[in-house]
Amino acid sequence: MESQVRGGTRWKRFAVVMVPSVLATAAVGVGLAQGALAASFSVSGQQFKVTAGHLHGEGFAQYGGIDTVYTSTDGEKKTQVPVAISSFTDATITKMCQSVATKIPVLNKTIYLRLDAGRDKPVTAKNLYIDVAQLDADAKFSNIDIGVAVKDKTLGPDVKQGESVLPGGFAQQAESADLYGVEQTAWATTAGTFTLNGLSMRLGTDAKMECY
Q1: What is the band of 89 on the pLDDT scale with cuts at 50, 70, 90?
Q2: Is the pTM of this model over 0.85?
Q3: How far is CA 95 from the centre of its chain?
Q4: Residue 202's closest CA among 82, 117, 83, 77?
Q5: CA 114, CA 148: separation in Å to the nearest integer?
Q6: 6-20, 98-112, 124-138, 161-175: lowest mean pLDDT where?
Q7: φ and ψ at 153, to 5 degrees?
Q8: What is the 3-state secondary structure (H, E, C) of the chain?
Q9: What pLDDT is attached to residue 9?
């Protein structure tokens, strides 16, 4: 992965990897539960919901970006959406829930996938990036620095498909961040390693399966 640099801040250039179905996302979750694996996943053309009792992150940074979202399974139709990219060098998460609703036209039903983890032992992640569309939480930051994201010209003009950083946009960083009672919707999540301790995965048609 390439990075943007402002002083001592590394502004990551994030490329979205699209997963075409909710079942593929479930397979990723099962693999993560078996060990600390590299992970990059999203749901094609859809937001997904995430909740957490407590997220503690070291090396926090947040900045604006644009994701390219594919709205068809063949990858032909796409649109761009603005996101707030939150990054952590190390993160621990308790009582994490992730859910996504997928409409299945041939069945005339909506299928819900829900993943729960971190109930007894926290979820852990390294180099975690979340492309956020909406976030509600109580937050505490340590040694926060608020500024402007600047494009590093040494990286060259190329921007990877599905990714764009917004030079001159709002950005902030902190030594650490604590978020409590997290409710958010996101377009994508990527991590160097992601360990889902105590993973529980369910599929069903009940709308109450969503995290919130």
Answers
A1: very high
A2: no
A3: 16
A4: 117
A5: 36
A6: 6-20
A7: -65, -20
A8: CEEEEECCEEEEECCCCCECCHHHHHHHHHHHHCCCEEEEEEECCECEEEEEEEEEEEEEEEEEEEEEEECCCCCCCEEEEEEEEEEEEEEEEECEEEEEEEEECCCCEEEEEEEEECCCCCEEEEEEEEEEEEEEEEEEEECCEEEECCCCHHHCCCCCCCEEECCCCEEEEEEEEEEEEEEEEEEEEEEEEEECCCCEEEEECCHHHCCC
A9: 41
Q: Are 97 and 114 in contact (CB under 8 A)?
A: yes
- Type of residue found at 171: A
pLDDT at 143 over 70: yes
In this predicted model, which residue has the larger pLDDT, 56 or 20?
Answer: 56
Mean pLDDT highest for which of 39-48, 74-83, 111-120? 111-120
